Amino acid sequence: MFRLAHTLIFAVVLLAGTAVATAAEVTLLNVSYDPTRELYQELNAGFARQWEAKSKDKVTIKQSHGGSGRQARSVIDGLDADVVTLALAYDIDEIATRGKLLPPNWQKRLPNNSSPYTSTIVFLVRKGNPKGIRDWDDLVKPGVSVVTPNPKTSGGARWNYLAAWAFAAKKFSGDEEKVKAFVGKLYKNVPVLDTGARGSLTTFTERGIGDVFISWENEAFLATKELGPDKFEIVLPSLSILAEPPVTVVDRVADKRGTRKVAQAYLEYLYTPEAQEIIGKHFYRPIDATVAARFGKQFPKLNLVTVDDTFGGWQKAQKTHFVDGAVFDQIFTR
Amino acid sequence: MSLALRRHTVLPGFGIALGFTLLYLCLIVLIPLSATFLKTFSLTWDAFWTAVTAPRVLASYRLTFGASFLAAGINAVFGLLVAWVLVRYRFPGKRIIDAFVDLPFALPTAVAGIALAAVYSTNGWIGSLFVPYGIKIAFTPLGVLVALTFIGLPFVVRTVQPVLEDLEPELEEAAATLGASRLQTFTKIVFPTLLPALLTGFALAFARAIGEYGSVIFIAGNLPMVSEITPLLIITKLEQYDYAGATALAVVMLLISFTLLLIINLLQWWARRRRAAP
């Protein structure tokens, strides 16, 4: 009896072995930032279906989410990410320069600065907009309480900060001192500085703190949709920033694990109409013109500046504003 | 040396036990800590000094050590009370209350932080009660104190409880028959016996509070110069890939904590000796 069981198990193992040989099973690890959890769940399923139809191989994509900076650090410290999809290019730059895991020109390898979608920064206010918030000007008024995470720990918060800065720079036509004072006044109105965007969203929606929440556009949509349109509404400022969350293959890891081909295909899939449709559904702005046109109503045209044009790229923005002792610290310790 | 040591003990296996103890301490405690120190040495003295004395960092030391000290003090008083009630009185539901004391040990700190922030925020159950008086708890330094008091409670209760259980009621009865008042019995008989254990509990709660991150971060508000704790600044530095700066702060915290714990240990030794002397 026992013998028979053994033989059976052996046969099953053998069979399984041959099955694997004909259709390989690949796993990819996609290390991403906080709010993309639901987006990539759907994209991964779509890609797996397409890849299996094309190559007969089964691909499973594992996801890891967290603050963008922390995720980049895990990859530098040895987390085997085949692809990274982070909140801002600066964090992938760090993987390139500090970790030397991918070439420094990584952002040129895929279309649109390697960003398969864009997003922007908008305001979320309480229903009826009791404080009458229309634009960045209103956020520095005394008595207005603003919720935003800490730009030193949150990628999303850096976009918020830069958008406010870009508005002030335009308003005061670049007068550095006045711009600094404006942004300083804005942050004086912040009662809670959470470490991440999701934490701030909770502070605003669940704890009832703040009159306005400076938010990723997709998170703002999510809040109005999931937590009820009768509680919050979205306000579009006169000027905001074009956020381009980039994606890339981590060369050293993909080569070591032999997954470069499928990883590359995975990222290219993000640019296909099918994926762009999913992206739009999750409230990120598709870059594919025809898909974007279909979502036109959802995403009104905004006056957007870019980090490259207004701030001279992420490396420079980080150095002037966010490193220890730079402008953001000066605003608070003054 | 080994001979001398061997003569003192009647228990077998001293050599192997000590060897294992040292190896274990090295692997678990000393090697990671020395890595922290080594990483700091990649900074010049000037860079180290600027990193650990920046105004924001100084403000965070004040909050971290101040709130931890206060929280440990509050726990010393009320933890003693809880231990006293649990040991000396019999009442229905005692077992359950006894188990409640351990909850802050068992609960993941992030869960504790989120729960505390929800309860103590201006629209929470307890927080809303304080709104009419203009007192805000969550997202202020007061919130930090609340979180640190929460996580420190079991340390005091669990160190004082066994000593209190061993304290024979006969001692107090004897004091009473000799004409001591209730207050005298407590201050002259009970308290000195409990003091070493109480100090240990205080030290443990204090040390735990200094290192606490998870629960505080959700209730603190994290405003620079106001409600930022030192562990948050360490994380902030890590997020900016400033490993050396982060370890510099860690080293300062280690040194201060170590000194404080040493002082408390000395106090304890003094308290024990004073009790043994007469």
Record the SSE blueprint.
The complex is a heterodimer of chains A (about 325) and B (about 280).
Chain A: H1 2-22, E1 25-33, H2 37-55, E2 58-66, H3 68-76, E3 83-85, H4 89-97, H5 111-114, E4 117-126, E5 146-147, H6 155-171, H7 176-188, H8 197-205, E6 212-216, H9 217-226, E7 232-235, E8 240-243, E9 247-249, H10 251-257, H11 260-269, H12 273-281, E10 285-286, H13 289-294, E11 304-305, H14 307-311, H15 314-322, H16 327-333
Parallel strand pairs in A: 1-2, 1-3, 5-6, 8-11
Antiparallel strand pairs in A: 3-9, 4-6, 4-7, 4-8, 4-10
Helix pairs in contact in A: 2-12, 3-4, 6-7, 7-16
Chain B: H1 2-8, H2 14-40, H3 45-53, H4 55-88, H5 94-101, H6 103-106, H7 109-120, H8 127-130, H9 141-166, H10 169-177, H11 182-211, H12 214-219, H13 230-239, H14 243-276
Helix pairs in contact in B: 2-14, 4-9, 4-11, 7-9, 9-11, 10-11, 11-14, 13-14
List its salient traits.
heterodimer; A: 334 residues; alpha/beta; 11 strands; globular; B: 278 residues; mainly alpha; 14 helices
Reported for the largest beta sheet of chain A, the result is: 7 strands, mixed
Q: Secondary-structure element sequence of chain A?
A: HEHEHEHHEEHHHEHEEEHHHEHEHHH
Strand content of chain B: under 5%
Rg measurement of chain A, Å: 23 Å
Question: How confident overall, as mean pLDDT of chain B?
Answer: 88
Strand content of chain A: 15-25%
Shape of chain B: globular
Total number of helices of chain A: 16
Going by helix content, strand content and strand pairing, the class of chain A is alpha/beta
SSE ordering of chain B = HHHHHHHHHHHHHH
- Outline of chain A, from the CA principal axes? globular
Low-pLDDT stretches of chain A: 17-21
SS field, number of helical segments of chain B: 14
Low-confidence stretches of chain B: none
> What is the averaged pLDDT score of chain A?
89
In short:
The complex is a heterodimer of chains A (334) and B (278). Helices cover 49% and strands 16% of the residues of chain A.
